[in-house]
Amino acid sequence: MYNLLKGKKGIIFGALNEHSIAWKVAEKAHEQGAEFVLTNAPIAMRMGELDALAAKTGSQIIPADATSVEDLENLVEKSMEILGGKIDFVLHSIGMSVNVRKGKHYTDPKYDFTTKGWDVSAVSFHKTMNVLYNKKAMNEWGSIVALTYMAAQRVFPDYNDMADNKAYLESIARSFGYFFGRDHKVRVNTISQSPTPTTAGSGVKGFDGFIAYAEKMSPLGNATAADCADYTISLFSDLTKKVTLQNLFHDGGFSNMGVSDAVMEKFE
Questions:
Q1: Rounded distance, CA 113 to CA 66, Å?
Q2: β-strand partners of 92
Q3: CA-CA-CA-CA dihedral for 253, 256, 262, 264, to nearest 10
């Protein structure tokens, strides 16, 4: 226990069940002394177990559709009421591809599905920051973090249009992060995490094979959801006050590897 977040207040989007990275972040933030509000889409809340997390962390839940500016305004206003002041940290852990869910190949998508996917996965991040920025809801030196994946930079065929969504998300973090830093001294970063067996990640075709491949490629092995939570907490803390506009790879070294001995042995 370091009490890295003692006295800090936040909003955590996207916890669904104990496999969710957002769930692990909430547990770690609570351990480190933070108070926060939990939020997810109403349909996701019916599927998940958010009440148990709220009870464990002493948190309140505010349902919100992150694609709705009206819902986000209500979320931010009520969060400040509940927490008794401005926000110090926000986690955006939201991603969804209807094309992936429906088995539509990248070369033959349904574009209505594509639009819904980028609205949920990327534009929701812009909308969230827009509300926080215009309401001046963040304390100075606050921290906003979104979760992403390296398919934003490199080809992973079965990741489908989620790769485009993540590239868009990372661009929003940089572009909005400039204004948030300049005007309110708030930092904005994305964490590019190892493939992680969450509910969303496990829905990608060939996921089990890929997670095994990434484990063999990464000199430190894959980063777990709990590892990612630890890293996220460090970005919420005052120890990283001058880190902003960054896409931070948290993947055991995978992102800088060309090939590993363990992978080469499979082909020799």
A1: 17
A2: 146
A3: 170
CA distances for 128 relative to 140, 197, 213, angstroms: 17, 26, 35
Residue of 2, 111, 159, 213 marked active site: 159
Would you say 144 is a known binding-site residue? no
Q: What's the pLDDT score for residue 44? A: 78
pLDDT tens-digit series, residues 9-48 = 999 999 999 999 999 999 999 999 999 999 999 887 777 7
pTM value is 0.96
C-alpha to C-alpha distance for 109 and 188, rounded to whole angstroms: 31
- Residue 149: active-site member: yes
Angle, to 10 degrees, between the axis of helix 21-31 and the axis of helix 225-236?
A: 50
> Could you tell me whether strands 187-193 and 138-148 are parallel, antiparallel, or unpaired per DSSP bridges?
parallel
Write the pLDDT tens digit of every residue in 199-256: 666 666 677 888 999 999 999 999 999 999 999 999 999 999 999 999 999 999 999 9
Q: Among this protein's residues, is 178 annotated catalytic? A: no
Domains, the chain, in order of start with CATH, read 9-265 (3.40.50.720)
Please tell me the predicted confidence (pLDDT) of residue 219: 97
21 annotated to a ligand binding site? yes
Residue of 106, 111, 149, 168 with catalytic role: 149
Is 14 assigned a ligand-binding role in the annotation?
yes
What is the number of alpha carbons within 13 Å of residue 12 lying toward its C-beta? 31
Bridge partners of 204? none
Q: Which element (helix H / strand E) includes 28?
A: helix 21-31
